[in-house]
Amino acid sequence: MAVEEALLKEAWLALEKSIIYYLGRPVGTVAAYDPEMDALNYDQCFIRDFVSSALVFLIKGETEIVRNFLEKTLRLQAKERQWDFFQPGFGLMPASFKVEGHGVTQDLRADFGERAIGRVTPVDSSLWWLLLLRAYVKVTGDISLAHQPSFQKGIRLILDLCLVSRFDMYPTLLVPDGACMIDRRMGIAGHPLEIQALFYGALRAAQELLLENEENQYFVQAVNNRIAPLQRHIRDEYWLDAERLNVIYRYQVEEYGEESFNKFNIYSDSIPFDWLVNWIPEKGGYLAGNLGPSQLDCRFFALGNLMAIATSLASDHQAHAIMELIIQRQGDLISQMPMKICFPALENSEWRLLTGCDPKNRPWSYHNGGSWPVLLWMLAAAAIKTGRKEIAYEAIAIAAKRLSQDGWPEYYDGQSGRLIGKEARKFQTWTIAGFLLAVELMNRPEALSMLSFEDVIVPPNGNGSSLSD
Ligand code: GLC
């Protein structure tokens, strides 16, 4: 793909500059390296941010940093049952970590959200970690790393956290607000698509990585039991297209009993049909942002939809329809900078009630309808998977014109993504890595197999159960 060599070189040098060393060995990348702003916690290595860097390193054959990262973060995983309840839960992976001290006295300090703004829980970290471990194994062929007892234990702890008894009736994962890339209050508490897509990918990864032995038996079974119902639930209940809109519009409500059709008691009046009927193209569709009791969040969330395509959580037909929607609604979703984190933005009373009046998340800014260049690689992945490469080429060309000139910002503001984000960091590592990764993936589409999964056939009425069954 025709991106100037000089631009790629500049990005690669910036990525190398972001590397963090621990006892002389590379272990991760800082979130941003902006000399003009107070670092806050951007000088730390975030698990979710590092995945973009790690996939670039893997494609480039620089596997050592990824292995070190996987080993070190595994050591940071919360392994003790804590009874003071303000400590990270058993099995949780940190949001970020930092190297402290100098020389031989260096140490790694993890942040599980206890210092983060809003004390948000990084539910996505463990899920990304599993996806990255599987990518590492795919690229290097080194399954022995994942088979080490410490790694097998780490996987079991993550599964324990996700699959054991819980206060929930759905196959999806119930999480608090801000538990993922959107790490501030944004009205996504419950069963947000982003977490479900990562959860599905993580379960598929665990299925490949867990050894079949007595210790793992229970977990292997729990994973196998969960995959099919989770997939069916998302495909059936989160899906929105012209046909589904008609069904939802005419829903009966207050149905009691197991046979009820409108299972989640969605009131038609809560659905923004006015914009949806115009916005959803005839052939397109997408997975809704969230589903709960009398709640269907119809916002489009990019990461969840794109990762649902990459992991085959979405069916083949749905994957093509999502890409069709992105192409038809390019003006809203890509416009002047790929791509919108969610669409549309929350405004007025919705913004007040759902973000808690967060000025950083005012309409069309940051998480609330801002544009995030890191999403470019996920767009490229989805485009390759569905054979719609032209949209990724276009998006990369748009990004290539501005990213370097603008200093690789974290995000962009405005309905069209024209403005550099009001509080955006410059030299944001996942912006740089996301761009490089998108280009690399387009050049070597076969590399996508490190993070994609083939579809699995789910029996129409197959029943799943959870670990507690
Ligand atoms: C912001 C983003 C979060 C990211 C972090 C570091 O908090 O919302 O997703 O991990 O910055 O870049």
Characterise the protein shown here.
The chain has helices at residues 5-17, 47-59, 64-76, 123-140, 143-147, 149-163, 193-209, 214-237, 242-249, 273-279, 302-310, 316-328, 330-333, 348-355, 375-386, 389-402, 429-443; strands spanning 19-22, 25-29, 45-46, 96-100, 107-111, 239-241, 285-287, 290-292, 295-297, 300-301, 342-343, 412-413, 419-420. By secondary structure, the protein is mostly helical. Strand 8 (290-292) and strand 9 form a beta hairpin. Helix 1 (5-17) crosses helix 17 (429-443), helix 2 runs parallel beside helix 17 and helix 11 (302-310) packs across helix 15 (375-386).
Radius of gyration: 21 Å
Helix count, DSSP H or I runs of 4 or more residues: 17
The helicity comes to 40-55%
Distance between the termini: 51 Å
Overall form: globular
List keywords for this structure.
single chain, 469 residues, mainly alpha, three-stranded antiparallel β-sheet, two-stranded antiparallel sheet, 17 helices
